[in-house]
Amino acid sequence: MTLQIDLIDETKKLSDSDVELIKRLLNYAAEKEHIEDETELSVMIVSNDEIQKINKEYRGKDYATDVISFAMEELGEDEQEIIGVDMPRMLGDIIISSDKAQEQANEYGHSYARELGFLTIHGFLHLLGYDHIEEEEEKKMFARQNELLEGYGLER
User: Among 35, 45, 85, 149, which residue carries the largest CB count within 10 Å?
Assistant: First the structure.
């Protein structure tokens, strides 16, 4: 099982081990979620300033957040599904604030790697259609998130 992951670190703050963690964790989660081989997604690591701009533009919320996901498989208004074209599956984009990841790691008393892993899995599950708007959805998403993180070995 191998995902095609386009990882862009705009902050230039990620270590080689951080990059490796993101890629291995996403491949682990994709295998557990039975995602097809060669499925594509992108991960972008940005600053608080950059994620705040994205959050304001696309969600109408003028503050820095920790992670935003843009699922490619959700059809927007007036969009039509492409059928019969043999192309790799494209899940979408995960955007993570490295500043928020560090702030939250400090706040929760765990490592930056643990927080980065948490945000990566959280964003990935959103790409797969998981959500946490309704209480029942939240229980399901957070339980799956914890299963994946613990199964990988990234516990608090």
Answer: 45
Q: What integer is the mean pLDDT of 98-106?
A: 97
Domains, the chain: 4-72+88-150 (3.40.390.30)
Q: How far apart are CA 1 and CA 24, in angstroms?
A: 11
Q: CA-CA distances (angstroms) from residue 116 to 24, 50, 59, 85, 130?
A: 12, 17, 22, 35, 19
Of 114, 116, 128, 138, nearest in space to 30 by CA: 128
Paired tokens of 91 = 């899940």
DSSP code string of 101-112: HHHHHHHHTS-H
